[in-house]
Amino acid sequence: MSAMAEILVPGQAGEGEALVLTAPISFWGGVDPKTGRIADVRHPQHGQNLAGRVLFLPGTIGSSSASAVLLELVHNCHAPAAIVLHEPDAILLLGLIVAREMGWETPMALRLGRDVFETYRGSTVTVAGDGALAIAD
Amino acid sequence: MSLALSPDEQAIASGKDGAAMAMRIVADSARLLGAPRLIPIASAHIDGALYHGDSGTLFAEKLVEGGARVCVRSTLNVGALDLMGCSRIRLEEPARGMARRMMEAYRKLGCEQSWTCAPYQAGHRPALGSDVAWGESNAVVFCNSVLGARTNRYGDFLDIACAISGRAPDYGLHRTENRRARLVFDVAGLSAPFLGSEIAWPVLGSLYGREVGNTVGVVIGVPSHPGEDALKAFGAAAASSGAVGLFHIAGVTPEAPDAEIILAGAAPETVIRVTPEMAARARAGLSTATRPKAIDAVAIGSPHLSLAEFDMLERLIGGRRLSVPVYACTGRHVLSSLEQTGRRKRLEASGVIIVADTCVVVTPIMPELEGGILMTNSGKFAHYAPGNTGYAVLYGSLTDCVESAVLGKPTFTDIAA
């Protein structure tokens, strides 16, 4: 499985195990900024960790502090390897825009149709600099 | 359509100082959103001064070092410390020092030391139809819906970047065509006693947020204006369970004199008829604790309590002594009047812990407690307390919260939906 995704925010190419969320999440209050662990007890993927993963996000909800949590994850090296979104989320991705202004290495944010998220579940995914998302052998 | 910056905006963005960084952040966001241009703003409310980790402090200090200053009125949302010294914050060094440095950096950028998530009750009320850049989800939804000023949900960093550049992306809720309702949320099927009760608003807000996501909707079937604190509770709950930035209530909020006008003559794409069962399920969903025998604390004031809400709290306590603490979160705009009238002392003598400038879900205040049970009347606290404090929550009206705090165990007066 390989797909070409639109680059929403440029960044480092990378690789990681896919983490496909089955429900939208609020980063603030829903993700521990120190570790990347999903802390929202009501979230179906509660207890999973998004650090180093290729994160497939069906959407975000809640607080407008999502960007701060993502910036902190970038700064303390617990960010996802890449973030794949169905549609641009300016609140969350601002965390990456600011990280770039700070001169920090940032993961890429990519746009891909929600319908293909499931095909990556359970696989290791490589993200190329041009936005190609492939399942690693 | 790609973003076109004016020559002035381009000149600022190509610089090396803090103003340049702010303009680039606004422009990058505008590109991401697909906005064709930037528009001037009249004010800002800044959510970025809450400590989540060192990165936010470093960002604010980089703006200060770059000589940046806000160019419009900018109030500050809560920080991680109680600078008024009402409550003890269990934030340890070095985080404590970094949180203080962050609050100081935002002061140096020229922001007002309001430190409240209810700036709209602390004298910051932008005019109907004006464009502003507000952060903090409850403040955003109140500003759009109740005041009729125009803002998107500005995240941390973009809020201060807009305040410094005096610009915001021309996008979303700044545009008239995106403010009309596409959905009807009909509450006429609920009982009059329930609609007249305090819990109706956080419960319905929570349901509304989950049902509508980010669609603009109009609530119909509300018999009379429920009061500003009820609208505050509705919006805060809706913005916690969904991505709500603007709601209308027919006959109540300023852009919706009636449902037809705000639907702009079109048929609604969706009609949600709220049944008593739906309201009962939404109410049950606000609790995560199942039939606890005792409670450890009560937390109220998300959004920050108004003076009217303190009046009600004091009346309900009626001079009795509480068995478990009631954490009452508010802003310094309310604290000063509580102090002038001697009410702060009376409340504290009963066992109320007043928390100013911050609140119990954004910074460690309540003791760490394995299996702790927190009771609240706030839809927003109910949503965030389990993840942020480790306490399980029990939802009830303010009356029930106070009675339970007096007894130390949960007690409920039932109001059928």
From TrEMBL, chain A:
Q: Give the CDD domains listed for this entry.
A: AcnX_swivel
Give the matching Pfam families: AcnX_swivel_put
Q: Does the keyword Lyase apply?
A: yes
Concerning InterPro entries, the annotation shows: PMDh-S-like_dom
Q: Which intervals hold domain Phosphomevalonate dehydratase small subunit-like?
A: 25-105
The molecular function GO annotations come to: lyase activity
Superkingdom of the organism of origin: Bacteria
Keyword annotations from UniProtKB, A to Z: Lyase
Q: What is this protein called?
A: DUF126 domain-containing protein
Q: What is the originating organism of this protein?
A: Mesorhizobium waimense
From TrEMBL, chain B:
Tell me yes or no: is Coiled coil among this UniProt entry's keywords. no
One Pfam family this sequence matches: AcnX
Q: Which InterPro entries match?
A: PMDh-L-like_dom
Task: State the UniProt keywords alphabetically.
Answer: Iron, Lyase
Output the superkingdom of the source species.
Answer: Bacteria
Specify the Phosphomevalonate dehydratase large subunit-like domain's residue ranges: 4-403
**What are the recorded GO MF terms, alphabetically?**
lyase activity
- Signal sequence, renumbered to the chain: none
In its UniProt entry, what is this protein called? Answer: DUF521 domain-containing protein
* Native source organism of the sequence: Mesorhizobium waimense
